[in-house]
Amino acid sequence: MHKFQNNLVVGISSRALFDLEEENNIYEVQGVEAYSRFQIEHENDILKPGTGFALIKALLKLNDPVSGERKTEIIVMSRNSADTSLRIFNSIKHYGLDISRAALAGGASLAPYLSAFKTDLFLSAKESDVQEAIDAGIAAAIIYTHNLPLEETKEINQIRIAFDGDAVLFSGESEKIYKEQGIEAFQENERKNAGNPLPEGPFAKLLKTISAIQKGYDKDSSPIRTALVTARNAPAHERVIRTLRAWDVRIDEAFFLGGMSKKDVLKAFGAHIFFDDQAIHTDPASEVVPSARVPYKTEKDKTKL
């Protein structure tokens, strides 16, 4: 059996992989029986690519079909039952995607299976599933499902992944100071702690896994290029740079925007996926690049015993 420990393991929902908005609307309005009936009746109709399709197809190209060496594993994770998922697998086969594994939970929570499959990243359009994954310590994000123009889903030769900093790569501690005490307190805290690495956020492990893959290639020929796109600016940039150095990870490009809009920078970078914790950034970005919002971990009520 193939081992996952040295691979980038991505779990993706069927609605993030394929365009299932019409079907999801049937589910929301008419219920699960109508949805199941529709999927079975249309199981030979091939689905159109969804927001995450081009990214997943590009990630699968990291695997070498000649040597059999695999750097990434893709797992379809869905609350669908096996009976209603034939259309998904027919579409996977039609597009020639090398995906053979699935977790079909039949309405149950997906969170326990994310850990079982050693998932590094989970992409879904269903907020409650993503929230459960984040609470379980898995890097997860709610992907926007409105389709980009056709040219944006063309073949990808180099995967470009963009990350926000605070509450995504790094913990949300510094951002909390900014929100509660203002920009001056935030800047002072970062200045005082410039030599102390930031604590890891929900996507730190994912970045480290990607960086490990990059180290197998020359910088110019790497199949993955990363960018940090953060609202931080000087003097709060120093702590970020020192943190990445302490982690021994590579970020190819970094943008310290000081509150400027991220949309144009992300379009210029050509991100194939952008992760941010705030809708104020992901909403406009999703108009030009595939985007996904990272929810905050649910805070436990400390007043309860």
Which key phrases capture this entry?
305 residues, alpha/beta, Rossmann fold, 2 domains, ten-stranded mixed sheet, 13 helices, globular
Folded structure, characterized:
It contains 13 helices and 10 strands. By secondary structure, it is α/β, with parallel strands linked by helices. The chain folds into 2 domains: 8-147, 3-Layer(aba) Sandwich (Rossmann fold), CATH 3.40.50.1000; 159-293, Rossmann fold (3-Layer(aba) Sandwich). Helix 2 packs antiparallel against helix 3 (32-41), helix 8 (173-181) runs antiparallel to helix 9 and helix 12 (263-269) packs across helix 13 (279-285). The mean pLDDT is 90.
Helix content: 25-40%
End-to-end gap: 44 Å
Instruction: Output the CATH homologous superfamily of the largest domain.
Output: HAD superfamily/HAD-like
- Per the principal axes of the C-alpha atoms, what is the gross shape? globular
Describe the sheet with the most strands.
10 strands, mixed
Short structural description:
With 305 residues, the protein is an alpha/beta fold. The chain is 36% helix and 15% strand.
Could you outline the blueprint of secondary structure elements for this entry?
Elements: E1 8-12, H1 14-17, H2 21-30, H3 32-41, H4 53-60, E2 72-78, H5 86-94, E3 101-104, H6 111-116, E4 121-124, H7 127-135, E5 140-143, E6 159-163, H8 173-181, H9 183-192, H10 204-214, E7 224-230, H11 237-247, E8 253-256, H12 263-269, E9 273-276, H13 279-285, E10 291-293
Parallel strand pairs: 1-2, 1-4, 2-3, 4-5, 6-7, 6-9, 7-8, 9-10
Antiparallel strand pairs: 5-10
